Amino acid sequence: MSTATSKPAFGNLHGLKVVYSAVEIAGPEAAQLMAEWGADVTWIENTFNGDSMRDTTYVKELERRNQRSLSLDIFSEEGREVFLKLIETADIFIESSKGPAFARRGITDELLWEHNNSLVIVHVSGYGQYGDMERVNRAAYDQTAQAFSGYLSQNGSPEQPMIASPYTGDYFTSQMVVGSALAALYKAQKTGVGESIDIAMYEVMLRMGAYYMMDYLNAGILYPRAGAKHQNLCGIGVYKCKDGFLSLCLYGAKQNKAILERIGLGYLWGTDEYPEGTTALWLDGPKAELIEQKIEEYLLSMPVDEVEKDFSDCKIAANKMMTFEELPNHPHFIAREAFVEWETIDGKKCKGPNIFPKFKNNPGQIWRGMPTLGMDTESILTEIGYSCEKIHELAEKGIIKKS
Ligand code: COA
């Protein structure tokens, strides 16, 4: 494994070198998590306007902290040479594009393996590297992945399908990138032989959204879009209280008994319709409509903090819907340092989520803010053996950009 040079030694991934060429979230967020866990991450950006994530104001500071920016025209002849040289010392290469964009331009997996036999290559795209070629080459974002995978058809109200936000398809994809890349790395380190991973965003969403799909595929059952409530169980969903919303997930015998007592339907418990030990209050159950109506009425009459506490004491999973304003001051957020402040490259303060998860022995760390476009071009090229003169020449020709 190659050794990172410019970042401090920390984290479980210290010594791992990740290179990526991708924009926005799906590919980059995977590299980002690895950067937070100690990997040396090189972010390749084009030489004209860089990653479109740079158009955001604050989120880019979170999504690109701990990274190094290399601005390189990969597909020019000389840029390709630089890229292949860079790949020689990388462990993982992640790219996201409209179908097999690298292979189309002659940068095939096989060529990459000629330069680094154990390289783990992750291709991220909307629809995969092969299949119906008209679809394969299409642009894709979260919304299109949710639409094509059937995920979108499950969320929202019966009249209006709704995207699960924010950017669920992108962030789920990034988790699949991290997991599969590290799985392949485990094997590559044992065998010395790399891997190529074909991640289609719609397939990520198909896998993540298959819970109710299994009922359809195997028994033809189609649940209507349930809006703020659950498809087939009472007491699950987002309910309006006197002064806020409660997110409730009612399940389990003692929990059902406690709720029925509170909503004035305790007499149902232990009957033939709801025998003791009933764990699930199905929406097609005998008194489901009445139960749901009474839950709604009861919650509407209750202050949300009070009901959350009472339900929690009964081992019912319930949480009031927290607003952004409430989060930073909540004692639990404070105790776990869920938010943190760090310095941006230009010395300003930026606030955002801390590094998660919390590793006990080798914690993550924030060692720098988001780099400016091409800020690390020179040092990265020097590391892989380019002289000052050659770097200057490449910059003059516009093959690289340095800041
Ligand atoms: N050097 C030279 N060329 C570069 C380059 C570099 N460093 N980085 C990108 N390019 C090229 C790309 O190959 C592309 O060329 P093409 O249009 O001829 O294929 C062009 O610059 C534009 O880059 P791209 O990042 O693909 O921008 P786009 O606006 O055309 O498409 C996406 C953006 C996200 C829609 C597209 O990349 C995509 O579908 N990606 C896969 C799914 C995905 O990750 N979606 C975003 C989820 S957050």
Automatic annotation (TrEMBL):
Gene3D superfamilies membership: Crotonobetainyl-coa:carnitine coa-transferase, domain 1, formyl-coa transferase, domain 3
Entry annotated with the keyword Lipid metabolism: no
GO MF term list: transferase activity
Record flagged with keyword Transferase: yes
A family per Pfam: CoA_transf_3
Keywords (A to Z) from UniProt: Transferase
InterPro entries according to UniProt: CoA-transferase_III, CoA-Trfase_fam_III, CoA-Trfase_III_dom3_sf, CoA-Trfase_III_dom_1_sf
UniProt similarity note: Belongs to the CoA-transferase III family.
Name of this protein: Crotonobetainyl-CoA:carnitine CoA-transferase
Organism: Schinkia azotoformans LMG 9581
Taxon lineage: Bacteria, Bacillati, Bacillota, Bacilli, Bacillales
